[in-house]
Amino acid sequence: MATTLTPVLSAFWDDRKSWTLETYERNGGYAALRKALAMDPADLVTLVKDSGLRGRGGAGFPTGLKWSFLPKPDGGPRYLVVNADESEPGTCKDVPLMMATPQFLIEGVIITSYAIGCHKAFIYVRGEVVHVYRRLLAAVEEARAKGYLGDNILGTGYDLDIVVHAGAGAYICGEETALLDSLEGRRGQPRLKPPFPAVAGLYARPTVVNNVESIASVPSIVSNGADWFKGMGTERSTGYGFFSLSGHVTRPGQYEAPLGITLRELLDMAGGVRGGHELKFWTPGGSSTPLFTTEHLDTPLDFESVGAAGSMLGTRALQIFDETTCVVRAVLRWTEFYKHESCGKCTPCREGTYWLVQVLKRLEEGNGSEADLDKLLDICDNILGRSFCALGDGATSPITSSIKYFRDEYVAHLTNGGCPFDPVRSTLFEGAAV
Amino acid sequence: MPITDQARERLVADAQAIIARYPVPRSALLPMLHLVQSEEGYVSPDGIAFCAQMLDLTTAEVAAVATFYTQYKRHPNGTYTVGVCTNTLCAIMGGDEIFTALEEHLGIGHDETTADGAITLEKVECNAACDYAPVMMVNWEFFDNQTPGTAREVVDRLRSGEAVAPTRGASKVCSFKEVSRVLAGFDDGRADEGVGAGTASARGTALARQKGWTAPAAGSGTTPSSDGKEG
């Protein structure tokens, strides 16, 4: 096999008490912080820029470049806000990372805060994962007790405090400006950009918002260097990342590998599609990324190749569906999700997702007509690119891609007078007495 | 049930501790809404008024926020919120069957509570545990790889007052009020309970160990030759 796994953040997830500071330090933790605090902050920004690290929250924007957009210090506060609101359907990497090894994130937060001149950082974690919240609170306290947080960190004169903040259930708060509004104690609604958070973010002050996995990757880059990081992955999609396999696969789970690995390689590692079944469709990066099919098994999972093949790398959330799955049912359910989670600020998204659900429902029930497919595409066309944030855009992805690849299956619902699939055959417990 | 004077005194102290975490007081609103839920089991009109008063906001401003987020309950919640993921992947893997089984078993639907006040049943959106589908959350703790049978068993045990352990999480599921207090930022000392990574989470780790795969120059803290030019 050409590509192998490269566990960094998951290297000791099998340790009995992987989440403690003691385990983290035994595995080399906080050596990077000592090294970073001896460096000039500007050199740290350059180092992360040079590594090519791109945001692991879905958009893939270069992390070091984002840091460099902060205006020159004016004596007022600057903030780091970690987006730990992992909610994109299919995405399940940050939650296990924070549960198993929260110190990677804490060390990354301290190094990043030092690099950008921040003295108060926030971790905004979704409220629906209470044990993850406990682990983060405990990790901050352990780091503080050891002198890694607080005043005069390791005698360097640098001060930092971290606040771990629990959200309260809203997918939209994963959008960075909605997250900032939510952190300010408001409804989570996206802001008009510009100004970008780098200029006017939290409390209208310069702010960096980064995903958990991006920040957690920083200590390894500081320890091992930009060239080490670039030695993994492809030329423009450098480094390693989590690939989260879920659904109809023999051994679903988290597989940490260089960017550019293929689904075929990952499926080999995960024991293939579940026994007796075959791949039908999959998402490369969560439900907001256009569907792929068997023809994309060898597409390198890097930002450029997935984009060129008509989708997006997103969060590397590989949801695998076999031939027992009705694509119309799958797409309807995702669309209901976007309708439920639309914050209502922008009309195309608020009204459009509502109508998409109506039309998809009648198609799934066999009551629609073929003209409904054009109606769906027309509504999608009126949503895409017409709202403040990407939620509405994401809602169109499963619809347009499924009509592109599975138009016949939509039509079969009409000729069949309803869904031709037996949902029980798709379940984990298919055939068992339950 | 209105907030008593005694409870109010306690809540004021807690709210002040929350407000002190933030540079701007209004940032305390979300944790404070979790806090009032920990007292009353939902966000009551009294709870809204309390938050408004503490943060110098109008009750309309607080209500606007409270109604935006799904974790804030607008009527008294059961001791346990049982949330079945019915987003696409979990639904297809069996979440729909599990939800229907619980509806029939408990005799209630989405966002309804059993007459004994034990269980509030909900459909929930993706909870970031797709490699354990189908997933059920009880008071925001993970119950992985559920079936209709295991889900029924969990709710029966909860209703009978048994301590029930999640698959990944604390050693037992705490009450809705207790968990709401944790979400307000008050540690309950249970972080060391439960597993680190679950079986599915650690599959890549296990496979890499078995095959002897590592990241290049594994063993963090080492300094490769490329290092000097960056420092």
Helix and strand layout, with pairings?
The complex is a heterodimer of chains A (434) and B (231).
Chain A: H1 21-26, H2 31-37, H3 41-51, H4 63-68, E1 79-84, H5 94-100, H6 102-116, E2 120-125, H7 130-145, E3 161-166, H8 176-183, E4 207-211, H9 212-224, H10 226-230, E5 240-247, E6 253-258, H11 263-269, E7 279-283, E8 292-293, H12 303-308, E9 317-322, H13 327-341, H14 347-364, H15 371-383, H16 391-416
Parallel strand pairs in A: 1-2, 1-4, 2-3, 5-9
Antiparallel strand pairs in A: 5-6, 7-8, 7-9
Helix pairs in contact in A: 2-6, 2-9, 3-6, 5-6, 5-7, 6-9, 13-14, 13-16, 14-15, 14-16, 15-16
Chain B: H1 5-19, H2 29-40, H3 45-55, H4 59-66, E1 80-85, H5 88-106, E2 112-113, E3 119-124, E4 136-138, E5 141-143, H6 148-159, H7 176-183, H8 203-211
Parallel strand pairs in B: 1-3
Antiparallel strand pairs in B: 1-4, 2-3, 4-5
Helix pairs in contact in B: 1-2, 2-3, 2-7, 3-4, 5-6
Gross morphology of chain A:
globular
Q: Report the largest inter-chain contact.
A: A-B, 118 and 98 residues
Report the order of strands and helices of chain B.
HHHHEHEEEEHHH
**Portion in strands of chain B:** 5-15%
Sheet bearing the most strands of chain B, described? 5 strands, mixed
Helix content of chain B: 40-55%
Q: What assembly state would you assign to the polypeptide chains in this entry?
A: heterodimer
Distance between the termini of chain A: 39 Å
- Number of helices, where a helix is a run of at least 4 consecutive DSSP H or I residues of chain B: 8
Proportion of residues in β-strands of chain A: 5-15%
DSSP, total strands of chain A? 9
